[in-house]
Design a protein that fits this description.
Layout (H helix, E strand, L loop, with lengths): L1 H14 L22 H4 L6 H9 L19 H17 L4 E7 L10 E3 L7 E2 L5 E5 L3 E8 L6 E7 L13 E2 L10 E2 L4 H59 L1
Parallel strand pairs: 1-7
Antiparallel strand pairs: 1-4, 2-3, 2-5, 5-6, 7-8
Helix pairs in contact: 1-4, 4-5
Length: about 250
C-alpha cells in the first residue's frame, strides 16, 4: 500500500500552507513534498499503525504539526487555520478507492471473502454482511475475489481521484459455487438497493464532516475568547500603569 499511503500523505501536505515545501522544521529534517516514510525517518517497534494495518485492515498516517509537543496557547489559532483544510481533504480521501458487496447467485451473503490485489497491498477480508471497502490511490488494478466453496472472480478496477459530486457506483460481485456452470459476473443491484447503500454512505460521511467542522468552530471560538480576555487584561495593566505614573508625578 505504499502508493496509497504516499497519495494520502501528499494530499494532506499539499493542502497545508507550508507542509508541502518540506523545509527544515526540526534540526536538519527535510522531507521531499513534506512527507516521509516513518521507518525511513526513525524505526519504532510496537506501533499502533503497523498493528492496525496488519490486523484490522485500517490505514493511518501521522501528522507532525511541529517540534514542540506542547505548543503555547497563542500558537493554537494558527495551527487551527493551517490544518483546517488539510483535515477536510483527509476526510474526503476516506472514500478514495472502491467498495461494494459480495453475494452468491441467490443473493445471499458470501462469508469470509478475501480480496487479493497484488498491485495495491495486503489482502483484505469482507465484512460478515458481505460488504467491503478498499482504499487505493488512483490507478488500474486487478482484484481477485475468492471464498471457500466458490469460484474465484477476477475484476479489473479503475480507480479515479475521489469526486464527491459524482461518487462511483459500488462494485458488487457475485460468486458462483464451484458446482455452478455459469461464469462469474458482476452483480448489478436494482436501483432501489443501490440508492439505499449510497444514502447510508453519504449520511456517515456527512456526520463525520459535521463533527469535524463543529470541533473546529468551537476551538476557533474558544481561542478568540481567550485572545479577547488577554487583550482586556493587557489594557487593564496598561491603564493601571498610567494611573500610577500620574499619581507619582503629582
Amino acid at each position: 500500500d505504499d502508493n496509497t499511503f504516499v497519495y494520502l500523505a501528499s494530499s494532506y501536505a499539499k493542502a497545508h500552507p507550508t507542509m508541502y515545501k518540506g523545509e527544515r522544521i526540526c534540526d536538519d529534517d527535510r522531507f521531499v513534498g513534506g512527507i516521509s516514510n516513518g521507518a525511513h525517518w526513525y524505526s519504532l517497534n510496537g506501533g499502533m499503525q503497523d498493528w492496525n494495518y496488519l490486523q484490522c485492515q485500517t490505514m493511518e498516517i501521522t501528522i507532525e504539526m511541529g517540534c514542540n509537543k506542547y505548543p503555547m496557547e497563542n500558537e493554537l489559532l494558527q495551527k487551527y487555520y493551517d490544518h483546517y483544510i488539510p483535515l477536510i481533504e483527509h476526510v474526503k480521501n476516506s472514500r478514495q478507492g472502491f467498495w461494494g458487496k459480495v453475494t452468491d447467485s441467490s443473493g445471499s451473503v458470501v462469508n469470509n471473502v478475501v480480496l487479493v490485489a497484488p498491485d495495491i497491498g495486503i489482502n483484505i477480508t469482507a465484512r460478515a454482511d458481505g460488504q467491503y471497502w478498499r482504499v487505493a490511490a488512483p490507478g488500474n488494478y486487478e482484484v481477485t475475489f475468492s471464498a471457500n466453496g466458490y469460484q474465484s472472480h477476477v475484476h479489473h478496477v479503475k480507480v479515479d481521484p475521489v469526486n464527491w459530486a459524482a461518487l462511483p457506483d459500488p462494485l458488487n460481485v457475485m460468486l458462483l459455487m464451484t458446482n455452478d456452470e455459469v461464469t462469474n459476473h458482476v452483480d448489478t443491484l436494482d436501483l432501489e438497493s443501490r440508492t439505499e447503500m449510497l444514502t447510508r454512505r453519504y449520511l456517515v460521511v456527512g456526520a463525520v464532516l459535521v463533527v469535524v467542522l463543529a470541533g473546529c468552530m468551537l476551538l476557533g471560538l474558544w481561542l478568540r475568547k481567550k485572545k479577547r480576555e488577554e487583550e482586556k487584561k493587557r489594557k487593564d495593566i496598561e491603564y493601571r500603569g498610567l494611573i500610577e505614573e500620574g499619581s507619582d508625578s503629582e
